[in-house]
């Protein structure tokens, strides 16, 4: 098998790590060894490289085509000789509010796991560290390797949903502080809701993926590694339910922002209307006395003071009434 760049490889035999970092060209030499389990990783492989791997491992053409087609949904497809897994790792930037998704796939055979990444943002070293920290489970072969992949993916989901929860708590604090949201905050709320919608599309299908492994894979269901997959499933459920609740919460915050803006506008309109009513009284009185006709007290000082007193008293009474009703 030709490879343009160094790839990560590992060989386990009877639950023990025998070799790692060997050329992918040597993988075929170990596939038929008794008790051997092989893992190797490819980053953005070419169609020719995948064709070579497909021929070597007997992969289904639909599985290979899924790797070559970007933006596949998270899924687990079952074939006669292997399974195909497609998942997404997630990273969230709390400063910018940007959600970063990295697509990764895996071909799972009886004695081999092949991971295919779209970029280096899928941290292979973190994956290796997880395997090394639980090397006692290596006797379970491919199930052990698959558990490490799923555990890493789900943990990135959990980290993202925790970071988003912190962001939403900040929005809630400012909301309950009765601060009118500015345009920047409104935009952040909208972007956060978009990120949650996108994130939900990659988190929710993970429930079916892990559940399918239980129902249709006797190697996992009937072995002592089952509790570890159950732990992953519990994390998947928590992340999915948490995502749903946060999406609803962001929607409620958005509605609260709109309600606060509407209330603010109503308050402004009440104040403007109240002041207009107060100004209208002296305007009406002075307008009446400004007509070019005789009126009571015309050309008399007492007439001037009488009209001034009337509109002053009327304005004070209106002001007091509006203040009493909290319109001013």
From TrEMBL:
Record keywords, A-Z: Cell membrane, Membrane, Transmembrane, Transmembrane helix, Transport
Coiled coil regions, renumbered to chain: none
InterPro entries for the chain: CorA_cytoplasmic_dom, CorA_TM1_TM2, MgTranspt_CorA/ZnTranspt_ZntB
GO molecular function, one term: cobalt ion binding
Entry keyword Transcription: no
Chain ranges passing through the membrane: 272-290, 302-322
Pfam families from the UniProt entry: CorA (PF01544)
Tagged with keyword Transport: yes
Source domain of life: Bacteria
Topology term for the membrane: Multi-pass membrane protein
One CC-aspect GO term: plasma membrane
Gene3D superfamilies: CorA soluble domain-like, Magnesium transport protein CorA, transmembrane region
Entry's localization field: Cell membrane
PANTHER family, A to Z: CORA FAMILY METAL ION TRANSPORTER (EUROFUNG)
Entry similarity comment: Belongs to the CorA metal ion transporter (MIT) (TC 1.A.35) family.
The protein, known as: Magnesium transporter CorA
Biological source species: Acrocarpospora corrugata
Source taxonomy: Bacteria, Bacillati, Actinomycetota, Actinomycetes, Streptosporangiales
């Amino acid at each position: 098998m030709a490879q343009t760049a160094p790839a990560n490889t590992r060989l386990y035999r009877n639950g023990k790590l025998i070799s790692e970092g060997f050329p992918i060209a040597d993988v075929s030499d170990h596939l038929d060894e008794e008790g051997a389990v092989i893992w190797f990783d490819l980053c953005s492989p070419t169609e020719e490289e995948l064709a070579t791997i497909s021929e070597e491992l007997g992969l289904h053409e639909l599985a290979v085509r899924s790797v070559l087609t970007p933006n596949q949904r998270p899924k687990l497809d079952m074939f006669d000789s292997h399974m195909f897994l497609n998942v997404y790792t997630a990273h969230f930037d709390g400063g910018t509010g940007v959600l970063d998704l990295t697509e990764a796939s895996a071909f799972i055979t009886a004695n081999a796991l092949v991971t295919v990444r779209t970029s280096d943002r899928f941290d292979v070293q973190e994956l290796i560290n997880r395997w090394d920290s639980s090397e006692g489970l290596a006797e379970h072969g491919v199930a052990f390797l698959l558990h490490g992949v799923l555990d890493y993916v789900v943990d990135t989901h959990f980290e993202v949903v925790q970071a988003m929860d912190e962001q939403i708590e900040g929005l809630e604090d400012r909301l309950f502080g009765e601060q009118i949201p500015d345009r920047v905050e409104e935009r952040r709320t909208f972007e956060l809701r978009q990120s949650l919608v996108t994130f939900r599309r990659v988190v929710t299908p993970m429930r079916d993926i892990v559940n399918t492994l239980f129902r249709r894979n006797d190697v996992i269901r009937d072995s002592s590694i089952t509790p570890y997959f159950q732990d992953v499933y519990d994390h998947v459920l928590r992340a999915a339910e948490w995502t749903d609740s946060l999406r609803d919460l962001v929607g409620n915050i958005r509605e609260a922002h709109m309600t606060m803006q509407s209330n603010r506008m109503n308050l402004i309109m009440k104040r403007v209307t109240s002041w207009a009513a107060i100004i209208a009284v002296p305007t009406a009185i002075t307008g009446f006395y400004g007509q070019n006709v005789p009126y009571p007290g015309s050309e008399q000082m007492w007439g001037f003071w009488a009209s001034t007193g009337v509109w002053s008293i009327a304005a004070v009474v209106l002001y007091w009434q509006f203040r009493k009703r909290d319109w001013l």
